[in-house]
Amino acid sequence: MLEILKEVFNVVLPVILCAGVGFAIAILKVPFDTKMIGRLVANVGYPTLVIAHLSASKVDLGSFGLMVAAALAMLASYVVIVTVLLKILGLPLRAFLSPMTLGNVGNIGLPITALAFGDAGLTYSFAFLLVVLLGIFTYGTWVPKNEFTLRALVASPVIYAIAIALVLLGTGTALPAPLHSTFKILGGLAIPLMLLTLGYTLATLTVSSFWRGALLAVLHLAMTLGVALVLVALFGFTGTERGVFVLMAVMPSSVATYLFVELYVPERASDVASLILVSTLMTIVVLPLLLTYAV
Question: Which domain CATH number covers 96?
């Protein structure tokens, strides 16, 4: 348990520290073009990250498919619940639907489940990664942009990246070493740049923005935990499957969702930044408790 607790801090604290660098950039008034960086991440960083990450994975396709189905059911449940919740609170779907429904399953979820459950845990975790990435680059883009068109989907580089990665994954084909290394380098841009952008925006937070984000973070945690426990029972998951599902379901709000809010709903960017920050900080407390239950 102590080793797992240490890993939680090892994973979460770098996220906070990287955002802190972005915060310092804003305080020091260093020029920082958030919109340009957002487009760079969406069109280059994430597509290459997907191909580099999934194409190098070895997973059992049967287990992978079952967990994909469960992750899709989880995401659908979140969307329904959050839509009703935001209507009650009088908050715009454009700004809050994607950060309230799409979790940070990549740079936090994957290392945690790998430590707790080994290779079997990673098999199930990749299913969540795929579903969340699809969510980010479909409705996670459409809703903030307020544009629901097939053209937007076809124009999204990450959709092609997912298709390529699935073909490579399903056929057990590896990319040529130079190409894999290139994609890995370019994919490495995505997470640090988004964390810097997150921290940059946090420097502009007002008190009202912080408390609104904190309230949404608490509601997010309650919703995700409740849905996870219900779906674990419905799908009959036990052991590693149950543990991975619960852990991945309660991941904090994805930093990637902030990209599209910043681009298309900038007046709500500070609220979403606060939500992401608080939900990530809550992970430090919540994950050790959940790991005690899951492992």
Answer: 1.20.1530.20
